[in-house]
């Protein structure tokens, strides 16, 4: 057994490892914060030669694969971390009131729903806005119940 090459499993394991690391690299390119600075003209230019690796990475990060529509800037996966830094800072404020907790949890779930909808499978969400709304209300309710319940336990 060669731990470095996993040779006891042969080439199939090498192919699996290779595919895994390729997916990791793709995800790194998709969440790269530099994608936040891509303009519509950059995206249009990348559409001209999508076989170029840099263009393909930009298109993967900024264009919905099914519809071809440009994903709005705050809903791109590369904006998820910066958007959530603000939300987490607001949620972690000292001794939140019920109103501020409700506002921050609603904002947090709004960002989550927006990112999932903007980047998700359109066939699975088509005509199911009621299900999305139910999930949103449930998520806000559960997160607020958690905040209020934990606040009572701590105080």
How would you describe this protein?
The protein has 155 residues and is an all-alpha fold. It has seven helices and no strands. It has helices spanning 11-30, 40-48, 53-62, 80-91, 98-119, 122-125, 129-154. The protein is elongated and about 55 Å long.
Provide key terms for this protein.
155 residues, mainly alpha, 66% helix, disordered N terminus
How would you summarize what this structure contains?
The protein has 155 residues and is mainly α. 66% of the residues lie in helices and 0% in strands. Helix 2 crosses helix 3 (53-62) and helix 5 packs antiparallel against helix 7.
| Largest sheet data | none
Approximate strand percentage: under 5%
Per DSSP E runs of 2 or more residues, the count of β-strands stands at 0
Q: Low-confidence parts lasting 5 or more residues at pLDDT below 50?
A: 1-8
Number of helices: 7
Q: Find the structural class using helix and strand composition.
A: mainly alpha
Cα-based radius of gyration, to the nearest Å: 21 Å
């Amino acid at each position: 057994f060669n731990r470095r090459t996993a040779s006891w499993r042969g080439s199939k394991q090498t192919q699996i490892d290779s595919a895994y690391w390729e997916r990791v690299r793709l995800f790194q390119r998709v969440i790269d914060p530099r994608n936040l600075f891509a303009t519509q003209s950059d995206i249009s230019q990348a559409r001209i030669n999508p076989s170029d690796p840099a263009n393909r990475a930009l298109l993967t990060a900024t264009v919905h694969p099914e519809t071809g529509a440009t994903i709005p800037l705050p809903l791109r996966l590369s904006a998820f971390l910066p958007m959530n830094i603000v939300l987490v800072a607001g949620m972690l404020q000292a001794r939140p009131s019920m109103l501020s907790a409700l506002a921050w949890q609603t904002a947090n779930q709004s960002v989550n729903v927006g990112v999932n909808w903007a980047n998700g499978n359109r066939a699975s969400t088509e005509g199911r806005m009621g299900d999305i709304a139910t999930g949103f209300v449930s998520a806000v309710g559960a997160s607020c119940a958690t905040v209020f319940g934990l606040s009572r336990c701590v105080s």
